[in-house]
Amino acid sequence: MVVFDFILARVVVSVLVAAYLAWEDAKTSFMNERLLLVFVASGAFVDLVFLPQDSWLVVFGVAAAIAAIGFISYKAGQFGGGDVLILLGLHLWLPFSPFVAVPWPFILSVFVASAAMGSIASAVLYAWKLRKEKLPKRKRLLFGLLVVLSLAFLLLPFGLFGVLFYALAVSSSFYFVFRGELLEKVIIQQVKLKDIEDEDVLAMEQIAQSKVKRFSLEKVLTASALQKLKKYARSSRKTTVPIYKNLPRFGPYILAGLLACLAVGDVIWFLMGL
Question: Which residue positions in the chain have pLDDT lower than 70?
């Protein structure tokens, strides 16, 4: 087991920074970029100073993998830039599980816990919003069936692992069955150009591919990508464009996943023992 120097300080710093960024993300959908960069840089510095050199390859190798996978996911519009940086910072500040010896990086357990919580909670939120929309009769029946199934765990003799697996199965079924309706009625909105925010995600599938190629449109609307989008809008005489507006804000789930892992030692290790 790797023994950390200043382990409690590492944990406290990680929780405080994650808590602030989660609050900021929930309130504004943005995270403080300077704080994120300082969090990542200071974590790398602490590791270089206090971790033995034979740990560097693993720690910084995993960090490089997080950065690479995160960048690809960010460019594809599947993950926010702030989310990638906070995960990277958490890995550098807590590269190994602080309380139990496990053979995988601690951030893997944090991500698994965060993703599971986010999937379940977002399914509940989306279902609540979708209930107001007009659906075909067949889809209304399926919606009612999934609601009944989502409550069935209260009557079934499931343990904690069973409840989590069941909730993930129901939420995944909900996303699969109602993907089209969620995109059309809940997630994608027509937004005026002046109301687009930095790093909003463009619903490129609702724009003719010939236009996408002609104007080199990008999914994540950074400053340069927004300029290309404005040229497209002027040329096509569009006053609004389709944007993925109601996407989950992952910061609070990262905090929840971190706290869950700290509470039980490591979520994956804990579930394997059930």
Answer: 1-5, 154, 156, 158, 274
Distances (CA, A) of 100 to 3, 52, 107, 137, 224: 11, 19, 13, 51, 45
* Residue 25: count of CB within 10 angstroms of its CB: 23
Q: How far apart are the first and last CA of the chain?
A: 22
Q: Which two tokens stand for residue 142?
A: 């399926």
Does the model's pTM come out above 0.85?
A: yes
Residue 102 contacts residue 272 (beta carbons within 8 Å): no
SS3 96: coil
- What's the token pair of residue 265? 């030692």
Q: Give the count of beta carbons closer than 10 Å to the beta carbon of residue 131.
A: 11
CA distance 173 to 134: 20
Q: Both tokens of residue 255?
A: 């905090």
And the tokens for 249? 């804000």
